[in-house]
Amino acid sequence: MASPSLFLVGIGFLVVACGAIAVQRNVDETGMVMEEGELLGLFDVMGSLLEEPGWADVHPEPCTDTPWPGVECEIGQDPPIFHVTTIHIGPDVATPPCKPSAKISDSLLKLPYLRTLSIFNCFVTSQVTLSPTLFGSLSSLEHLSLQSNPSLSGEVPQSLAKISTLRVMSLSQNNLQGNIPLELGGLVNLEQLDLSYNNLSGEIPEDIGGLKSLTILDLSSNGLEGPVPHSLGQLQLLQKVDLCSNRLHGRIPPEFGQLNSFSACGLMGPIPNSLSSLKNLTALSLDNNSLTGTIPPSLGSLPNLDQLNLSHNKLSGELLLSEEFIKRLGKRLDVRGNSRLCTSYQLSRKNISTYLQTPACLGTEGIVDNRTCPEEQPDDFKGRKPYWYHGQTSSRAPLQDPQFISTCFVLLHALSFL
Ligand SMILES: *[C@@H]1O[C@H](CO)[C@@H](O)[C@H](O)[C@H]1NC(C)=O
Ligand SMILES: *[C@@H]1O[C@H](CO)[C@@H](O)[C@H](O)[C@H]1NC(C)=O
Ligand SMILES: *[C@@H]1O[C@H](CO)[C@@H](O)[C@H](O)[C@H]1NC(C)=O
Ligand SMILES: *[C@@H]1O[C@H](CO)[C@@H](O)[C@H](O)[C@H]1NC(C)=O
Ligand SMILES: *[C@@H]1O[C@H](CO)[C@@H](O)[C@H](O)[C@H]1NC(C)=O
Ligand SMILES: *[C@@H]1O[C@H](CO)[C@@H](O)[C@H](O)[C@H]1NC(C)=O
Questions:
Q1: Chain segment 63-114, per-residue pLDDT in tens
Q2: Which residues pair with 217 in a beta bridge?
Q3: Which InterPro entries match (predicted)?
Q4: Residue identifier of the C-alpha nearest atom 12 of ligand 5
Q5: Which residues touch 390 (CB under 8 Å, ≥6 apart)?
Q6: Residues 270/376, Cβ–Cβ less than 8 Å
Q7: Are β-strands 31-32 and 27-28 bridged in parallel, bridged antiparallel, or unpaired?
Q8: Ligand 2 site residues, Cβ closer than 6 angstroms
């Protein structure tokens, strides 16, 4: 992003180089202030987006005298001329920002120094698709945000995977369809991928595990199906994963024990013991999923864990979290809505937290005591139900088909600087 100081430096350069305000400011003694092709390319791009009819007339020198709030330029090294580095279009820059027939011009290809392209709330009426050839040679692009464009439809082009410099790709709240191209997994510099709130379908490709720099992955609110890819567990820098509101199914992959943060939904099966290796975990929300099995007691030994919500699952057996842990969390520990969960008789008498509304394990019909609670065995639960799974009536609604459960679990981690 061009800083205002760079901008001033640029203006200073011009004054020094030209000595006086020339009539033709596009040219200085060493050549053009801007390459003509790039300038014309910018005019095309802006003109095809904005309502303002004579963009080129109103902004003849967009990098210097007649700036546009959403356009930023920087001076290149050799030759020292201006290049367009940022185009941002959105309601914060102009209202209404775009014309009804707004589209992305192919002239984008004439802006090879562009590092940031962000277009918000622009394509509202005219149907716009992302042309596969549009981004091919934008070799400098680092930040691509096309958000809240209801008439931006079609597929996410595979060709986006060729922009190896990309660090942020946010295509959320559009109307994109089709699969997530597996080629995107080749974007090794990508730090944030947000495809949330579209109409994407198919499975999340395993190739997504190739995004080695990824810290944030948000694929929530689409029509994605199938399992959560195990390869996500290999991404060492991942801090937040949100897969909520899809039709994903499956269990929490044990590899997620490597993650700092995770947020997804529709998951069933046991809570993997490996979560307890996340020593920096501060908050773990697995509420309103379809998790089964016991609560791993090791969660209670996570030194930084300060919030644990396991409510509304199908967890069972005795709650074996330490009394000290339970007291420390107080109401930030929520295990309500697990009808087969129980606490030891001693603990239940102590009335520690109203969010521990679980019966005592002993002496209650149909509820197991502490000695018969099964050990946590994450991968042995496949298809096998604890013996008390059947034949117990519950006041809760019938269990949903696990494929269509639409809520979330969220893991946050303590930032290292905290
Ligand atoms: C989402 O995409 C499917 C095809 O994959 C289509 O049938 C459906 O109408 C789309 N939904 C919306 C809201 O556009
Ligand atoms: C736990 O999650 C449920 C939603 O599933 C929510 O109603 C409840 O307030 C949460 N508990 C805490 C302590 O945040
Ligand atoms: C437990 O808490 C309830 C209200 O929260 C109270 O009425 C009851 O007396 C408490 N029981 C004990 C044993 O402290
Ligand atoms: C089970 O509970 C009884 C009393 O409630 C206690 O004496 C015993 O130590 C507990 N066993 C285990 C394995 O926690
Ligand atoms: C739990 O998820 C269901 C949908 O699966 C939703 O209707 C309900 O509101 C959620 N409950 C809470 C407390 O979030
Ligand atoms: C936890 O945080 C510390 C810094 O506080 C950091 O050095 C360490 O790598 C983190 N551990 C994990 C598993 O993220």
A1: 888 888 889 999 988 788 999 999 999 888 876 678 899 999 999 999 999 9
A2: 193, 241
A3: DNA_repair-toleration, Leu-rich_rpt, Leu-rich_rpt_typical-subtyp, LRR_dom_sf, LRR_R13L4/SHOC2-like
A4: 288
A5: none
A6: yes
A7: antiparallel
A8: 287-288, 309, 311-312, 331-332, 334
Dist. CA 324–CA 158, nearest whole Å: 52
Rounded Cα gap, residues 323 and 139, in angstroms:
57
A 10 A CB-CB count for 346 gives 10
Of these ranges, 75-89, 279-293, 338-352, 404-418, the one predicted with the greatest mean pLDDT is: 75-89
Which phi and psi (to 5°) does residue 106 adopt? -60, -20
Nearest listed ligand to the Cα of residue 287: 2
Return the structure tokens found at 71: 């356009």
Q: Are 121 and 97 in contact (CB under 8 A)?
A: yes
Atom of ligand 5 nearest to the CA of 400: 5
Q: Residue 309 CA: which ligand 2 atom is closest?
A: 1
Ligand 4 atom with the shortest distance to the CA of 370: 1
**10: Cβ contacts below 8 Å, ≥ 6 apart:** 63, 64, 73, 74, 75, 82
Q: Using CB atoms within 10 A of its CB, is residue 230 exposed (0-12), middle (13-18) or buried (19+)?
A: middle
201 lines ligand 1 (CB under 6 A): yes
- What's the gap in Å between 265 CA and the centre of ligand 3? 35
Determine the distance separating the centroid of ligand 1 and the alpha carbon of 155, expressed in angstroms.
12
Q: Tell the residue nearest (CA) to atom 10 of ligand 5.
A: 288
